[in-house]
Amino acid sequence: AVTKDAGSPRSSVLYGTIISYIEGFFNALGMSFGERQVALRGGNSAVLSNVIDELVRFRMKVRHYALALPEAAAEAAPREGAAGTQGLEHQQKDKRQRLMQERKPLLEACDSLRGHLAAFGIHIQDRAATSTWELLEGGHAEQQPG
Fold first, then answer.
1. pTM above 0.70, yes or no
2. In a domain, 24, yes or no
């Protein structure tokens, strides 16, 4: 419980905690209010940004493959009777679980890459359909869609 004495301001730690919670909530929804272009020092900043973009895109494609996400075309296929639909859905679920088990090492490699890049200040966040990255430099984050 937080109490406030008459005439004294609330703790800045409390405000920071509230802001972190709200930012985390919006990030979970896929919204970020701090996105901006990366402006690295030196002549190779554009090259580094492009390399990270490509790396994050490649990781995202491998991750989606490893998750065995159903194809959009299969989801849009017309449904036939209820009994046939249940059997088909059960088969698709079993197939997806089997594929995910086979592809588990790929997913673990994606997570490992994310962890290794975080050690260098490059933080990758996986969203529903895409991944974003941010570069922590000098104590502040600079974000890029991946």
1. no
2. yes
